[in-house]
C-alpha cells in the first residue's frame, strides 16, 4: 500500500466514524457540563461531581417515571412527584430528550 493509500484510509475512517459522537459517551466532566448547560433552563441545577454532572429539579407534578432515570448515561437517580436528582455520566440522545422534555414541561406552565 502506498503512503497516499494509508493517508486516504485514515481520512476515510475519521470521516466515517464521526457519527459515533452523536450517541454520547466518553465526555470529560467539563465537556458534560458544557453540553448540559446548552440545553437546561434556569430552574434546573447542575454541578460537577466525581461520576459526572449532578442534575436536579424541584417542580410539582414532574412528568417522569423511574425508568427515565435508570437508563444508560444516568446514575444514582432519585425521583418523587416533585423532585428529580440524577447524575448524568454521558450525554447522548436519551439525556438530551430527558432534559428537553423537562424544559418543555417548565415552559408550558
Care to give the gist of this entry?
By secondary structure, the chain is α+β, with helices and mostly antiparallel strands. The protein is built from three helices and four strands.
What would you note in describing this structure?
The chain has 109 residues and is an alpha+beta fold. Helix content is 35%, strand content 22%. The protein has helices spanning 3-16, 29-37, 93-107, and strands at 45-49, 52-58, 74-79, 83-88. It has a four-stranded antiparallel β-sheet with strand order 1-2-4-3, covered by helices on one side. Strand 1 (45-49) and strand 2 (52-58) form a beta hairpin. The longest helix has 15 residues, at 93-107. The chain starts with a helix and ends with a helix.
What labels describe this entry?
alpha+beta; about 110 residues; single chain; 3 helices
Helix content: 25-40%
- Structural category: alpha+beta
Global mean pLDDT: 85
Our estimate of the beta-strand percent is 15-25%
